[in-house]
């Protein structure tokens, strides 16, 4: 379990299930880009067209043979995370059920109504960027088999 602080303020407006995304309290583009650069720099990940999200979502995959994450650690194929276009700024991650519970209870995101992912709200400031970055790293660890 993760000790997440409560997310300040009301939850953003979310639409879905298809597309499933954030429609208010959009993360500043510079924070979205900083998060994306960190995500892309994780070992062994590569970017490819999403298998499950909207056009222009930026998706990350882990090659076959890297890590031992369970099937549930991937959204489709070897895609483990994607960040939505700038007008949205949220991201879908795969995480363990207890972590998804923690994220929902603390107000940092909501489960996808049809897929085994959680929508994590985009960071509104630098402190939130660091928290969301922690969640991304946990998702990555799940995909490579470091978290079960």
TrEMBL record:
Residues 1-26 are annotated as: Disordered. It comes from Streptomyces siamensis. Pfam families: Luciferase (PF17648). InterPro entries: Luciferase, Luciferase_dom. Residues 77-139 form the Luciferase domain. This is Luciferase domain-containing protein. Transmembrane segments: none annotated.
């Amino acid at each position: 379990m993760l000790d997440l602080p409560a997310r300040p303020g009301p939850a953003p407006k979310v639409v879905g299930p298809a597309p499933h995304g954030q429609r208010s309290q959009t993360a500043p583009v510079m924070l979205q880009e900083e998060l994306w650069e960190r995500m892309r720099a994780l070992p062994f990940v590569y970017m490819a067209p999403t298998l499950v999200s909207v056009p222009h979502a930026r998706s990350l995959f882990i090659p076959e043979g890297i890590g031992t994450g369970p099937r549930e650690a991937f959204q489709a194929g070897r895609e483990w995370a994607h960040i939505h276009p700038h007008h949205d700024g949220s991201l879908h991650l795969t995480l363990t059920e207890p972590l998804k519970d923690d994220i929902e209870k603390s107000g940092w995101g909501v489960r996808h109504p049809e897929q085994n992912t959680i929508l994590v709200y985009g960071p509104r400031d630098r402190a939130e960027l660091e928290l969301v970055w922690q969640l991304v790293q946990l998702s990555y660890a799940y995909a490579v088999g470091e978290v079960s």
